[in-house]
Amino acid sequence: MRFMIIRKADADTEAGILPESDLLEAMGRYNEALVDAGVWRGGEGLKPSREAFRIEFNGGEPEVIDGPFAETRELLGGYTMIETKSVEEALEWAKRWPREDGNFRLELRPVYTLEDFEPSEGLNVHRDLDARIARQSVSQAVHLSFEGNCREALNFYADLLGGRLLTISTYGDAPEPAPVPDDWSDKIIHSELSLGDLVIMGVDAPPAYFDKPQGVSVQLSFDSVEKSRYAFDQLVEGGRVRMPFEKTFWSAGFGMLTDRFGIHWMISTV
Of 94, 199, 203, 209, which one is least surrounded by beta carbons within 10 A? Predict the structure, then answer.
């Protein structure tokens, strides 16, 4: 059974007063206990209603109403989603809410599931959507293979594109020997570079397993022609132009290149 523990708003939450360290720690410990028990399904604190909007529909037409909203006792300050075997178990978790939160009011609401509805075409739409979501991966990344210069390439990409190297592991770090040349102990067996929402993974592929990339490019979009042009010019240095950077009917600035590491890129402007 799924439940939402609703933390009602009060004068402090509506004033945008952030929790102090003791409450922040207590909430963290509470959430940790939920996670450890396997009942945690998510939760967030909400900003005050002065930063919120209401969208009311009259005659099918939406009307946007800016906050703040007066009825504080009816507003939400945050929520926690849990999944338990019974109402009683959910109530026990709600009653364990950290006392450091002061004087507060919670509401426990059961959440509808698809099993609550009679079979219908409308229900099938939701079942199909759930099945579609279940097939999706939890993360995505571009995996690039290099001929022994992975570290140099990722450091270059990180510096040029404002990225951050999350992890670098070498063949020498591996618990079991890998089929690589004897002098490859400092070569990269796994690495991750964060470029905002994009993660680039890199590896130095052993000679017997290395294939030059074909038919695939890393695509990056920038919010100005100047930024796109700069990235294109820096990436293509020592490489080759596959399509000159210029204005197209779909972009104010677009180009294709192969960099000096053999990686194909598409640079565009949004």
Answer: 209
